[in-house]
Design goal:
The protein contains 2 helices and no strands. The protein has one domain. It is an all-alpha fold. Helix 1 packs antiparallel against helix 2.
Length: 69
């Protein structure tokens, strides 16, 4: 398998900020609490992803661990 290029850290941080705070800001402007709820769920998803990343640091990536049957 070819070596994949990693996403630059600045791009990843910008993407997370937009996904978390974008819906919250738009939801407050147009009075849609659903968008605020979306931003909370994205924030929790980021936390869970970071916890999983921290748990698997030092291990080689094994796609079979992520296959749901």
């Amino acid at each position: 398998m070819a070596q994949q290029e990693k996403m630059p850290l600045a791009v990843a941080v910008l993407l997370i900020v937009v996904l978390v705070f974008g819906p919250a800001y738009i939801g407050s402007q147009v009075n849609m609490p659903e968008l605020t709820a979306i931003s909370y769920s994205v924030f929790l998803g980021v936390i869970y992803a970071l916890m999983g990343y921290a748990k698997s640091m030092g291990e080689a990536f094994d796609p079979e661990k992520f296959i749901v049957t």
